[in-house]
Every structure is written in structure tokens, then in C-alpha cells.
């Protein structure tokens, strides 16, 4: 029975992939999208970093999909790991090297992560990269002192807020007569911190969401009862 | 000059990738796999893709190694050698 269900599942997946690949027009005609974006991307979105204008401007919808994929992965991990028994033994406090370096690195990682998020539209990097660094910054103290807790509810609230902010900014663009996630606001002067319209705001939302999500994921993994 | 540096980096990357397979210590394997990502991120910088390099360094070298190490801990393979496990 189980094999039959697996076979059905695999067959369905193959069928879907076949339908998609047979319909997709591969290598038909010259691809002009890339050239067009390279030529007018900076002008249209006002971001000095062209990658950001693609990730959030031209392909903002894909970024939303990426965020939801990450969310699903974190959700599945939470389900698989389950809840911790209250009487399960905690890890001992880490050694001097880890404790001292976590105290030293925490503010540095925080500054680097926030810098990368806030300057995502000017320099390489952005919400995803900075979010990962923020998650590492908040996980390091937990690694050094396992008795110290990060509030799961707080992280989840932060994540939900950031995710909602991303979608609300997208919907606001529709309200102003544009497409979903179309950049709004003044483009500003190219290369200044306040430029690129809503793209920096979107990247802040992405950064906070990714950071809270991955910090929660790591804390949950670290919290899981170790088999020993 | 550039080709030489890239060649050295690629050899280094392949060597660390091989180390992941042959090393008996699992934590060492995790560390080696994150070293592979570090070399790849340097390669990305040389290919003028700093955004991708940053992602590779943060996710590939940092986060995935942490997730793998925590997974080993969860499974109780934290201090085990591969060899010991095969004997048992």
C-alpha cells in the first residue's frame, strides 16, 4: 500500500515536471530581459546595487516565494523536532574561550548584519545575507550560555511582523495603482542611503524575517534533547 | 596570474571536499565542508559576484555548518568516530 502511494506520488511529480518542461519555451529567440535590466535598471529603481533592483524590484514576487520556502522549512523543522521535556537536562555552560569570544563578537556581528541589511541597495549584500549574520549574532550567546533563553514567542512575533510588512508594502503599491510589490516613494539621489524608494524598506523586512526565523531555527535545534 | 590563483583555489577546494569524505571524525568533516564553502566564496569574489559570495560565506560556511553540527549533536554522533560506529 505504502509503495503504491509512493509510486503514485513520484508518478504525479514526474507528470507535473514533464508538463512544465514541455510547455516552457527553452532557448527560443534571443533573451533580452537581462540586457534590458542592465541598461535601465539603475535608472528605473534608483538603487546603486543592480542585484537588489532585480531581487526586490523586477523579481520581488520571487523573493516572496523564497521567504515562504524558508518559512515552510523552519515550520517543518519545528514540527519534526517537537517540544522539549521540561525535565530534560540542559547543557553545561561553555568554556572560557567561547564565552569571551561570544561577548566580543556579539556587538560586532550585530553592527555588520545591520550594515549589510541597511546598505543592501548600495553595496553587495542585503536582507538575506545580513539576516543570516544577525541570526548568528543572536545564536552565539545561547551557544555560550545554554541556560540563557531567547523567547520563542518574541522571535515568532518579530518574524510574523516582518513578513506582514513585506506583503503590506507590496499591497500598498497596488493601492497606488501599480503592480504588486512595485517600488514606491521617491527614488532619491543615486548612491545615498535614502534612495531606491521602498526597496530598502523591503530589504529591512526581509532581513528581520530571515534573522528571526533562522535564530529561532538554530535555538530550536540547539535546544533539542541530545541523544547520548 | 589570475589563472594560477584560481587553479590553486580549485585544488584547495577539491582537497577539502575530499577530506570531507575520508576523515573519520564527523565534526572535522563538518568543518571541512564549511571550508569548501569558504573557498567557493573566494572564487565568487574573483568572478565579480560579491552578492553571491556573501551568501555563500554566510549560509554555506556559517549557517549550514552550524545546522549540521547541531544535527550531529541531536543524533548523538557528536564525539563518535566513523570507525567506532562501524565496529559497534
Automatic annotation (TrEMBL), chain A:
* Compartment(s) of residence: Cell membrane
UniProt-listed InterPro entries:
CPA3_antiporter_subunitB, MnhB, MrpA_C/MbhE
A Pfam family it matches: MbhE
Q: What is its main location?
A: membrane
Task: Give the membrane topology.
Answer: Multi-pass membrane protein
GO CC annotation: what is one? plasma membrane
List the transmembrane segments. Answer: 64-83, 104-122, 128-144, 156-173, 193-212
Superkingdom of origin organism: Bacteria
Q: Where is the Na+/H+ antiporter MnhB subunit-related protein domain?
A: 97-214
All copies of domain MrpA C-terminal/MbhE, residue ranges: 33-87
UniProt keyword annotations, A-Z: Cell membrane, Membrane, Transmembrane, Transmembrane helix
Protein family (similarity comment): Belongs to the CPA3 antiporters (TC 2.A.63) subunit B family.
**The name this protein goes by in its record:** Sodium:proton antiporter
State the species of origin: Thiolapillus brandeum
UniProtKB/TrEMBL annotation, chain B:
Chief place where the protein resides: membrane
One GO cellular component, as annotated: plasma membrane
User: Its domain of life?
Assistant: Bacteria
Q: Which Pfam families match?
A: MbhD
Leader peptide range in chain numbering = none
Q: Does the keyword Cell inner membrane apply?
A: no
The record's keywords, sorted A to Z, are:
Cell membrane, Membrane, Transmembrane, Transmembrane helix
Q: Which residues cross the membrane?
A: 57-75
Q: Where in the cell is it found?
A: Cell membrane
Q: Which residues form a coiled coil?
A: none
What is the topology of this protein in the membrane according to its UniProt annotation?
A: Multi-pass membrane protein
Enumerate the spans annotated as MrpA C-terminal/MbhD domain: 11-75
Instruction: Please verify whether the record's keywords include Cell membrane.
Output: yes
Q: What is this protein called?
A: DUF4040 domain-containing protein
Amino acid at each position: 500500500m505504502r509503495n503504491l502511494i509512493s509510486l503514485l506520488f513520484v508518478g504525479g511529480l514526474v507528470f507535473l515536471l514533464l508538463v512544465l518542461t514541455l510547455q516552457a519555451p527553452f532557448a527560443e529567440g534571443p533573451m533580452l530581459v537581462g540586457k534590458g535590466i542592465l541598461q535601465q535598471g539603475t535608472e528605473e529603481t534608483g538603487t546603486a546595487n543592480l542585484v537588489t533592483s532585480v531581487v526586490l524590484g523586477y523579481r520581488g514576487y520571487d523573493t516572496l516565494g523564497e521567504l515562504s520556502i524558508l518559512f515552510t522549512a523552519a515550520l517543518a523543522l519545528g514540527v519534526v523536532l517537537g517540544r522539549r521535556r521540561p525535565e530534560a537536562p540542559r547543557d553545561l555552560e561553555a568554556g572560557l574561550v567561547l564565552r569571551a569570544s561570544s561577548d566580543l563578537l556579539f556587538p560586532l556581528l550585530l553592527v555588520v548584519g545591520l550594515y549589510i541589511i541597511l546598505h543592501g541597495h548600495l553595496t553587495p549584500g542585503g536582507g538575506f545575507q545580513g539576516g543570516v549574520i544577525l541570526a548568528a549574532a543572536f545564536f552565539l550567546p545561547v551557544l555560550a550560555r545554554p541556560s540563557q533563553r531567547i523567547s520563542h514567542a518574541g522571535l515568532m512575533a518579530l518574524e510574523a511582523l516582518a513578513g506582514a510588512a513585506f506583503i503590506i508594502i507590496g499591497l500598498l503599491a497596488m493601492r497606488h495603482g501599480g503592480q504588486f510589490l512595485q517600488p514606491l516613494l521617491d527614488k532619491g539621489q543615486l548612491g545615498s542611503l535614502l534612495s531606491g524608494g521602498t526597496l530598502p524598506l523591503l530589504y529591512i523586512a526581509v532581513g528581520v524575517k530571515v534573522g528571526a526565523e533562522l535564530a529561532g531555527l538554530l535555538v530550536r535545534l540547539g535546544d533539542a534533547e541530545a541523544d547520548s | 596570474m589570475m589563472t594560477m590563483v584560481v587553479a590553486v583555489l580549485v585544488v584547495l577546494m577539491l582537497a577539502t571536499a575530499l577530506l570531507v569524505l575520508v576523515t573519520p571524525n564527523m565534526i572535522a568533516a563538518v568543518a571541512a565542508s564549511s571550508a569548501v564553502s569558504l573557498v567557493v566564496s573566494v572564487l565568487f569574489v574573483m568572478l565579480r559576484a560579491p552578492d553571491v559570495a556573501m551568501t555563500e560565506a554566510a549560509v554555506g560556511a556559517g549557517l549550514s555548518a552550524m545546522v549540521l553540527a547541531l544535527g550531529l549533536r541531536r543524533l548523538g554522533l557528536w564525539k563518535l568516530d566513523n570507525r567506532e560506529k562501524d565496529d559497534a
